[in-house]
């Protein structure tokens, strides 16, 4: 039996730049500090985002509309900043440096937000109050920091496992689950304990504690610098993409080669792209192959070093991979409309009976069921569901990332069907009790909403983790953070889509003085129809996903 190479086979290096040792680097020892840092980052983000509307309205005395607009703008910035962080990580800085810089910016932003809670509300000689200035700068610094953290942490953690080693590859599949567990652990802690501290002990303490957690997360992350495995940044992915386009267009007159072995590739085992392994040529998208076709003029002159005229097969295959991945990733937009509908779930809960054994349950608190479901299901998936699925599919991992995404989409659709069914029953009770024209709660327990929150949680455990795994495993080696950023963009596009649909539905259903589907008094409306509409979109999206995944051609490493 041949001896195993003492170094990793995926091209990773240690902190000195030497090939990383299989035994003394990476794996769970390195991932513990990464997951710990992610928990601290998630706690800080949700400690701000979950209760920010209360801070802006109660402390800074902003109107509900102004506060809501500011929160939407901030959250959108958090997601839209992720391509910038991913680009820097993949192209120039590497994931480790990007995470450190981003955590530092995030921590500084949180520190400014904490100071804003103690700053004076106004100074007569200053146009903008110190409190408003500190909170604005702090929030957008936090957003900039999150833009570097979100796409890089899951990919940097996955880099700690060598996918050329069977045992480590199996552990990597478990890592994605525990990464999502850490995210939701931070959310649960923030939405319960931190929100209580903010409401009862003051905002300075409520923002200060997450800031301390972030500092601890940075210290823990830095403590394992010598243990981590690093992938070298591959240079600008945008430049490589434009090079392929330019080279292919220049060779429109060149005939496509029947033999792919004649296409240009650098000699030896090393790829021309730093941090990337060579990729095998695949059929399809043959127009792009022209960029790697060596013309007679290039052979004669021996000029094979101008990437704007001649690209390598690996470079061309990078772009092919992205083109093939995009339809699958795009289905995440509709999938994310399920969670983006949570504000409507909350509005539905406000007109239901929220008294349970003498206690009044805030409708928004039911989102905790979603989080608890995820925290329970993630360990259960690895321990029970994966072995059960393995016996059915014959795959050791149970479900592939595409299977997992599809299962989650089914549960997302079911959650909207349940929400619509609950609303139909609620409206029937309202009509039978003569409450249709009164803006009051209907005698139907709010606990009937619990299943729709739980099913969204189940959907996220399957699909969100599936999308994270798909974006890492199928992306080119030197573009993993960028592909992860794409999944984050799909989240915010899903939110924007729901917002746009609400405006269109509101305008279309109120023509002629009608109440519309979603009026101020939900007892007069038809919120159920909007839920059915979203459920229908989820079903169509599932069909599109099945079609795209059936045609999807997986990446073939050389």
Helices and strands in order:
Layout: H1 27-49, H2 52-59, H3 64-80, H4 82-93, H5 95-116, H6 130-158, H7 166-201, H8 203-223, H9 237-250, H10 296-301, H11 313-335, H12 337-340, H13 342-350, E1 352-353, E2 355-356, E3 359-360, H14 367-393, H15 401-432, E4 442-445, H16 450-473, H17 480-509, H18 527-551
Parallel strand pairs: 1-4
Antiparallel strand pairs: 2-3
Helix pairs in contact: 1-6, 1-7, 1-8, 2-3, 3-6, 3-17, 4-5, 4-6, 4-17, 5-6, 5-8, 6-17, 7-8, 7-14, 7-16, 11-17, 11-18, 14-16, 15-16, 15-18, 16-17
What features would you highlight for this structure?
mainly alpha; single chain; 65% helix; two-stranded antiparallel ribbon; 558 residues; 2% strand; 18 helices
Report on the architecture of this protein.
The protein is an all-alpha fold. Helices cover 65% and strands 2% of the residues. The strands form 2 sheets. Strands 1-4 form a two-stranded parallel sheet.
Poorly predicted runs: none
Q: From N to C, what is the helix and strand string?
A: HHHHHHHHHHHHHEEEHHEHHH
Rg for CA atoms: 26 Å
Residues in helices, as a percent range:
55-70%
Quick summary of this structure?
The protein is an all-alpha fold. It is built from 18 helices and four strands.
């Amino acid at each position: 039996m041949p001896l195993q190479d003492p170094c990793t086979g995926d091209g990773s290096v240690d902190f000195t730049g030497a090939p990383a040792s299989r035994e003394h680097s990476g794996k769970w020892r390195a991932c513990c500090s990464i997951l710990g840092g992610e928990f601290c980052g998630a706690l800080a983000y949700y400690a701000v985002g979950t209760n920010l509307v209360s801070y802006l309205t109660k402390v800074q005395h902003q109107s509900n509309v102004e506060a809501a607009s500011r929160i939407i703008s901030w959250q959108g910035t958090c997601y839209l900043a992720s391509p910038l962080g991913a680009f820097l990580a993949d192209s120039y800085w590497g994931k480790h440096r990007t995470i450190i810089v981003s955590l530092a910016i995030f921590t500084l932003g949180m520190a400014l937000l904490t100071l804003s809670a103690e700053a004076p509300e106004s100074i007569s000689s200053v146009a903008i109050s110190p409190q408003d200035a500190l909170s604005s700068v702090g929030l957008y610094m936090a957003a900039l920091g999150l833009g570097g953290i979100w796409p890089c942490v899951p990919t940097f953690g996955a880099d700690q496992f060598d996918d050329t080693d069977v045992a480590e590859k199996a552990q990597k599949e478990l890592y994605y689950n525990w990464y999502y567990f850490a995210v939701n652990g931070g959310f649960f802690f923030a939405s319960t304990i931190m929100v209580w501290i903010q409401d009862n002990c003051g905002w300075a303490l409520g923002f200060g504690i997450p800031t301390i957690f972030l500092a601890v997360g940075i210290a823990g992350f830095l403590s394992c610098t010598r243990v981590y495995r690093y992938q070298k940044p591959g240079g600008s992915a945008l430049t490589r993409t434009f090079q392929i386009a330019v080279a292919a267009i220049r060779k429109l007159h060149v005939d496509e080669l029947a033999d792919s072995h004649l296409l240009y590739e650098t000699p030896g085992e090393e790829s021309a792209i730093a941090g990337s392994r060579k990729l095998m040529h695949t059929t399809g998208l043959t127009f792009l192959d022209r960029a790697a076709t060596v013309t007679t003029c290039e052979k004669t002159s021996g000029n094979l070093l101008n990437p704007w005229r001649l690209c390598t097969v690996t470079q061309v295959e990078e772009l092919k991979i992205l083109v093939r991945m995009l339809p699958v990733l795009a289905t995440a937009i509709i999938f994310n409309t399920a969670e983006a509908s949570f504000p409507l779930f909350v509005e539905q809960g406000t007109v239901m009976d929220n008294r349970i054994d003498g206690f009044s349950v805030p409708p928004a608190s039911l989102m905790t069921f979603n989080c608890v479901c995820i925290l329970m299901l993630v360990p259960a998936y690895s321990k029970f569901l994966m072995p059960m699925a393995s016996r059915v599919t014959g795959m050791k991992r149970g479900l592939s990332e595409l299977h997992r995404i599809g299962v989650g989409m089914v549960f997302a659709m079911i959650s909207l069907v349940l929400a619509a069914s609950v609303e139909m029953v609620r409206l029937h009770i309202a009509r039978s009790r003569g409450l249709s024209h009164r803006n009051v709660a209907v005698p139907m327990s709010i606990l009937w909403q619990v299943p729709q929150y739980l099913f969204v949680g189940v959907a996220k455990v399957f699909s969100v983790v599936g999308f994270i795994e798909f974006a890492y495993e199928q992306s080119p080696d030197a573009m993993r953070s960028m592909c992860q950023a794409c999944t984050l963009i799909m989240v915010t596009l899903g939110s924007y889509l729901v917002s746009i649909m609400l405006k269109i539905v509101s305008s279309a259903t109120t023509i002629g003085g009608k109440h519309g589907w979603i009026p101020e008094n939900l007892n007069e409306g038809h919120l159920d129809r909007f839920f059915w509409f979203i459920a229908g979109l989820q079903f169509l999206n599932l069909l599109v996903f099945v079609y795209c995944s059936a045609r999807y051609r997986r990446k073939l490493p050389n």
